[in-house]
Design goal:
The structure holds two protein chains of two kinds. Chain A is built from 13 helices and 13 strands. Chain A is an alpha/beta fold. Classes of the chains: A alpha/beta, B mainly alpha.
């Protein structure tokens, strides 16, 4: 996770170069005030991202308030998110900047006392789709793609983070639906460690974010012929359909890959749970929120300012230079539907994920 | 290659790079010297300022700062017996006794000399060994890393103190404490007793500061002397040049330990924590006369200090060449490189080789300048050892308290710091070595992670006997225990009793017994509590609990035997207790903690910016018998540091009190409320 967010930070750092925006007469609300970004990690990527965005954002908010980052590490940011939810004043001067941990909410992980739909949503940041890959030596003659799935003759071992991590959640279920039985090995931290493990043949399949894919897996595994991509999870279009991510347009999406292997469209309870999770967590990698029922004037100002900061052409150009693709801003209009879905999570879906993640937690028994 | 080497050198001596380098060095020296701060914090604070800079000055600033924190961390280790950073723990064993002998300046002279040497040497080895690095890193999978952790703990456990059993038990205790909270590989809560604070696990820095700082400060307060037990005029042979000479006499040891530092530093995640111990262990094992180790042997300072600067070069290799950061600091540096538009990878060894060499040169130059600056100041710094204890204590407590606070900004961290202060005091006076505990805390997470990943990836424990490197390291572990035990037994047979001062050497069975009983209960509880967890979260604590119970039983038995012996000596248990209570100053220790608890409660009422200065003034007036004027000046100085550095520079999150909410509404808008709340 660290590495992922570190790279995200780089994208955010890019924002730092964009030009200032003239303050309108619109608001004296923030003039001379200080906005606090509460980050749930001490050091590392999320903190970097928040600091650089904070530095940038103040130029886009009328009245040019000071934006400072305060660290409140604990529980992989759960402590900070609880703090925003329960204790922060809803005046628009205290915001949270943290990963969007959908599964923590769906499975009601111990220690979660907040609810994403009740937060005041400001903005989300979406990096790109996830992608899966495998070592080529898992099948005789070399594993190349969907045509070789039935030929796999090595025991599969998945390089995992933790059972609630978004990449693991969708990747391991996708492998199960494809009939690729695998051992789940949780506990890996950082892209480099995961790629090293696959390179050492300690583990042989995994899921990846785009940054890990482009910066670590491609030079160290793909280019050397040690591993090949299987499928990507694609980008959900506004109409609900699934498209390939432009960052890896040659890699089939999961539905395409599934049809090639199983000869039919995916369906059933697994697929239903898969789609629910994918739709929710696919929207953003991390989100900026205020406490519930935040001052509407402040909310409006912040949403607009955030959108402008992210849309700056120089922001995009810098992000492309640093991490090879652009980050996407996720506005409230896009996020609203997901929040409504989360608020009304069907009980059988919640039960499905609770049981599945608990089962993965018992892995190795 | 040579062109790139020279070009790299020219790059860092150009203006403004050299200016930023020196600025970075000064900041780094300060961050390393103050307990609880350190290089990683410096990187986080400085990073945002480098975004708009050119690559070479930016890296000069960051790397210059980062390279020297392990030079100045010697100051806290030697003067206060507190590890300035994780990499200078082994320095305490002999460095602090040297300060007590009035030889702080000599320790500094030796330490700074070999730090500079180690740093330069590490950088040179780094450039020479670039081609062989990747095979080394890839040869170490999780299984080997786990065994390396076991080796580190075995060495420290059996090398510190008189009792091998106590050392190893303390290591197991540390590993057990590291399992508190969510599991390393799975989010399963363990030993949380329904308290949210414990879900995150116990924080390292407050524990380390509590374990090492509070016991030393308690003893200073009790004796009300200076750190040095010998007045300045009587401390012969303790000057800095003596130390430099010591370093030159032991040049071969410094070379060997620098090599150890460089190569151990390349191992991801593990290097920084164990390198000083591996070097210290090597110094002890290779010495002919081992009797002075732990009592103030200068070689015990030279070995870890050479190694812990050499590591900075070693850790950089996998970072720049393969994008595999060897430590958290290296990970942040990697981020800085990326922001500067450099891609870690083979390019750094070909077309960007001059940049790589400018990194190497930065380390070299920073180490030399850093050591030179400290040498110039060391006379002043070492005078601190002769200052009256009461004058030193409140200031150190303020830094210890803030150092414990910045990690999680939680009152729980202060409670942790105080609880482990008490445990540390019991350990110190009861003959339990503290270093194995701290090393186990640092290694616990990575050892559990590598253990569980190996178990899952190999579908069982077969990796323990099927991998040759794992077997080789395991043999080394057994050999270490065997040799250490044989040494203790031989000493006993020869009728020698061994030293009674120094880490893990004190003998107070009445103080030791409660801890051994507590550990027996703890390991037994852990054995049963862990049965309910999924195997991935259960195996590691279970594997610790089993030998833990066996060792603790043995120590309880030994403590009871010693207790019986001292009862015979004093006539009755009461008389023995009276003697012990006097020895360990029970009464003033209690008062010391009452002061700390007072500071904690006042913080919860009115916040730290008022509570800490009030604590300082109260302590100085009531316990130290200083004048109001001196006390208030001192308190005001500390308040200034709190506001200027921790609030304005760090934007620290302070304890949120109701008083602050109330006062904020009351104060006029133009008044800077951050001055007091």
């Amino acid at each position: 996770m660290n590495r992922f967010f570190m790279s995200l930070a780089v994208g955010a750092a890019a924002a730092a170069v964009a030009a200032g925006y003239p303050a309108g007469a619109e608001a004296q609300y923030y003039k001379g005030k200080t906005i606090e970004f509460i980050v749930g990690f001490a050091t590392g990527g999320t903190d970097n991202a928040a600091r650089t965005i904070a530095r940038r954002l103040q130029k886009y908010i009328p009245g040019a308030p000071k934006v400072v980052v305060k660290n409140m590490p604990g529980g992989a940011s759960l402590k900070a998110q609880n703090f925003i939810f329960e204790r922060a004043k809803p005046d628009g001067f205290t915001l949270g900047f943290n990963p969007f941990q959908v599964m923590a909410e769906i499975t009601q992980r111990k220690g979660v006392r907040f609810s994403y739909p009740e937060f005041t949503y400001i903005a989300g940041v979406k990096a790109s789709a996830f992608v899966t890959f495998a070592r080529t030596d898992i099948a005789p003659g070399g594993f190349k793609g969907s045509q070789d799935v039935k030929k796999i003759n090595k025991p599969l071992t998945y390089t995992g983070r933790n059972p609630l991590h978004s990449i693991d959640v969708v990747s391991t279920l996708a492998f199960d639906m494809l009939g690729m039985k695998h051992g789940y090995v949780p506990g890996f931290r950082g892209s480099a460690a995961i790629v090293t493990s696959v390179e050492q043949n300690e583990t042989n399949i995994t899921g990846s974010g785009a940054i890990m894919w482009l910066k670590h897996a491609t030079p160290r595994l793909l280019n050397k012929g040690l591993a090949v991509p299987l499928f990507q999870f694609g980008i959900i279009q506004p109409d609900g359909s699934l498209a390939r991510d432009p960052a890896f347009k040659d890699i089939p999406n999961f539905i395409e890959f599934y049809k090639q292997v199983q000869g039919k469209e995916p369906s059933g309870p697994d697929w239903e749970a898969f789609q629910f999770a994918q739709n929710a967590m696919g929207i953003a990698n991390f989100i900026v929120v205020g406490p519930p029922k935040m001052n509407p004037e402040a909310t409006k100002i912040l949403r607009t300012a955030y959108k402008k900061a992210m849309a700056d052409p120089e922001t995009i150009a810098e992000a492309k230079k640093a991490v090879l693709f652009a980050f996407k801003h996720v506005g409230y209009d896009r996020a609203r539907k997901v929040m409504d879905d989360l608020r009304n999570t069907p009980p059988h879906i919640a039960k499905y994920w609770k049981e599945r993640t608990a089962r993965q937690a018992g892995a190795g028994k | 290659m040579l062109d790139a080497l020279l070009e790299g050198l020219v790059l860092i001596f150009q203006w403004p790079a050299i200016g930023f380098l020196i600025f970075g060095i000064i900041i780094g020296l300060w961050l390393g010297a103050v307990p609880g701060l350190g290089g990683v914090l410096g990187l986080v604070l400085l990073l945002p300022f480098t975004f708009d800079m050119d690559p070479v000055p930016a890296i000069a600033l960051l790397l210059g700062m980062y390279s020297v924190t392990t030079t100045s961390d010697t100051i806290a280790s030697v003067m206060l017996g507190i590890p300035g950073t994780a990499a200078s723990q082994a320095t305490i064993l002999d460095g602090h006794p040297l300060a007590k002998m009035g030889h702080a300046a000599r320790a500094f002279g030796a330490a700074f000399t070999v730090s500079a040497f180690g740093g330069v040497f590490g950088a040179v080895v780094l450039s020479a060994s670039l081609p062989i690095v990747l095979p080394i890193i890839l040869a170490f999978s999780k299984a080997e890393l786990f065994m390396l952790g076991v080796l580190g703990l075995t060495m420290v456990g059996s090398l510190t103190g008189q009792s091998v059993a106590k050392g190893l038990t303390v290591a197991l205790f540390g590993l057990m404490v590291s399992t508190v909270g969510y599991g390393e590989t799975l989010p399963v809560p363990r030993f949380d007793f329904g308290v949210d604070y414990l879900l995150d696990g116990l924080p390292l820095i407050p524990m380390v500061l509590g374990l090492f700082a509070l016991p030393e400060l308690i003893e200073l307060a009790n004796r009300n002397t200076s750190i040095s037990r010998i007045p300045q005029k009587d401390a012969e042979g303790g000057n800095m040049f003596e130390g430099v000479k010591d370093a030159c006499r032991n040049w071969w040891l410094a070379v060997r330990c620098s090599v150890i530092g460089t190569y151990v530093g390349m191992l991801p995640g593990l290097g920084g924590a164990i390198v000083d111990w591996v070097a210290y262990g090597h110094a002890v094992q290779s010495a002919k006369d081992k009797s002075k180790f732990g009592q103030g042997d200068i070689r015990g300072v030279i070995a870890p200090e050479a190694a812990n600067n050499a590591i900075k070069g070693g850790a950089l290799v996998p970072t720049v060449a393969f994008g595999i950061p060897g430590s958290l600091g290296a990970a942040i540096l990697l981020g800085a490189l990326v922001i500067q538009g450099m891609q870690p990878g083979p390019d750094m060894l070909t077309i960007n080789l001059h940049i790589t060499f400018s990194l190497v040169w930065t380390i070299v130059v920073a180490n030399i300048i850093g050591a030179a600056l400290l040498m110039a100041w060391s006379k002043q710094i070492s005078k601190l050892a002769f200052i009256p204890g009461h004058m030193l204590i409140p200031g150190v407590i303020a830094f210890v308290a803030m150092g414990s606070w910045i990690g999680r900004t939680s009152v729980g961290d202060w409670i942790t710091m105080m609880v482990f202060g008490l445990i540390g005091y019991v350990m110190k006076r009861g003959g339990w070595p503290r270093p194995p505990f701290v090393l186990a805390l640092i290694l616990g997470a990575i050892m559990e992670q590598t253990f569980q990943i190996s178990m899952a990836a190999h579908r069982g424990p077969s990796w323990l006997w099927e991998r040759p490197v794992v077997i080789a390291i395991a043999v080394l572990c057994l050999l270490t225990i065997f040799l250490a035990t044989r040494g203790v037994i031989k000493n006993k047979q020869a009728g020698k009793d061994g030293p009674t001062t120094g880490e893990g050497n004190e003998r107070n069975p009445i103080i030791s017994l409660p801890l051994s009983v507590f550990l027996l209960i703890l390991f037994t509880y852990a054995y049963f509590a862990s049965q309910e967890w999924p195997s991935n979260a259960q195996q590691f604590p279970f594997t610790i609990a089993v030998p833990g119970i066996a060792f603790a039983l043995y120590i309880v038995y030994m403590d009871l035997r010693h207790l019986a012996a001292s009862r015979r000596e004093f006539g009755s248990i009461d008389a023995a207790w009276a003697q012990t209570a006097d020895d360990v100053a029970v009464r003033s220790t209690v008062i010391f903690f009452v002061y700390l608890i007072g500071m904690l409660l006042l913080t919860m009422l009115v916040g730290q910016k008022i509570a800490i200065p009030v604590y300082i003034a109260t302590y100085l007036i009531r316990w130290g018998n200083y004048s109001w004027r001196a006390a208030l000046t001192y308190a005001a100085g500390c308040w200034l540091v709190l506001v200027a550095f921790y609030d304005r520079v760090m934007n620290l999150f302070w304890y949120p009190t109701l008083f602050a909410d109330w006062l904020e509404d009351l104060l006029p808008d133009w008044f800077p409320a951050w001055l007091i709340i």
